[in-house]
Fold this protein.
Amino acid sequence: MAKEKSKRTATRYIRHLKARIRKNKKAFIVYSILRILVLLTMIRSIITGDYESTFTCVLVLLLFLLPAFAEDVFKMEVPQLFQIIIYLFIFAAEILGEINRYFVRVPGWDSMLHTMNGFLCAAVGFSLVYLLNLNSDRIELSPFYMALVAFCFSMTIGVLWEFFECFVDLHGGDMQKDFIVQSFNSVKLDPQNRGNVVHVRDITRTIIQTGSGAEYVIDGGYLDIGLLDTMKDLFVNFIGAIVFVIIGFLYVRKDPNRVINSGLILKPAGPDGEESKQRMEENLRYQSQQLEERKKAREEKEKSPDAEQVKAKRAQAREQIYEQEEREAQERKERTWKTVESVLKSNYEQNADELPPEEEPPERHKEDAPPKA
């Protein structure tokens, strides 16, 4: 019984593997080529006695199984394009970057991988929210919110990776690559220790002396221990995340490039792949129907006579409010003028007694009167 059960399991696995190969031929070709290259690298490492590189090759072979593992465990469909990007990223980071020293030999190799990391992590974050949006009848997330969550997810993974690099460097590694700089600013060099910034410029040589008597000379400047590398990695991770967020946003908004963008979005998987497609189409139709119904209800509400009456009443109420405000302003103005007039009158009456009496004009004598015509 046990043999028959194991034979059935093996047969089912082989059928599933063949179905995956038929469905993702290009991804399988890329996977096969990269797997052969990893095996050749592992054989070379064993011959040369480089067991650390041998362990790295074994790790890469296990990481190549991640897409299939995710599909089987989480019941999702990893698109072919997404699988190819994952395979190339793993190969470029571990085989070319670590074993073949591309991180040191090729300028910008580390930046390119961190950009891809931001892109892939944003794709995973976006897909998780996208699946939640599709599989729930109660949750309807806007495209902007989905893009925002994907961006935050990608940046969080990038920050956690920088934490890991710092941890490794504190325990004898050097994952945060150093830069040679010719200037820096520091408050530690302030002789009075008052927090004043000391600007050091035009550094040509740095000499490092250890307690054991060893001496290291750095020509050309001063050694920056990973700060600039960390900031650069986070910035290119930011760029990769932004690129995918734009792609995902256009995908959800039913952009004409939907067919291209759909190769980067994880989808729910059914037993034969058709169930996921039908479910996605049903959910999309349901969401589009909901949007159309809301739009029609809003238009009908605006066109109905009740809506016109409501608008007229609102306009009439606004006019009454404006008239009331104008009356109140006029009353305030009149009260102000009355107050000012009363104050001026009272001041005049108080000061009237202090003014000198006005001289009455002398009476004219009869002879001074003008002759009558």
User: Anything to note?
Assistant: The radius of gyration is 41 Å. Confidence is low (pLDDT under 50) at residues 255-261.
